[in-house]
Amino acid sequence: FPLGLLIALILLTELTLGIGAWQMGGIDLGLASGTAAPVVGASNTEALGAVLYRDYLFLFEAAGLVLLVAM
User: Fold this and answer.
1) Rounded to whole angstroms, how far apart are CA atoms 52 and 71?
2) Do 43 and 37 contact (CB within 8 A), yes or no?
3) Taking the mean position of all CA atoms in its chain, how far away is CA 35?
4) Chunked in runs of 10, what are the mean pLDDT values of the chain (71 residues)?
5) What is the largest CA-CA distance in the chain?
6) Residue 30 near residue 56, CB atoms below 8 Å
7) Cβ-contact 15, 45 below 8 angstroms
8) CB 22 within 8 A of CB 29
């Protein structure tokens, strides 16, 4: 039971920090057209990781939370 509370507290903290950074303008959720600036000199995997963690961090974290709850 205490482990579940600790995990819930960590997830709540992550979501709070993510929403706070998004509202302060630190995180851009991408463009409506779905385009992103290309990462020059990087492989496709590195470019995908850069886009996920730079432009879609909150959505990526939210999807991870949904998958964790679904387990």
Assistant:
1) 23
2) no
3) 17
4) 86 83 64 62 79 81 87 79
5) 47
6) yes
7) no
8) yes
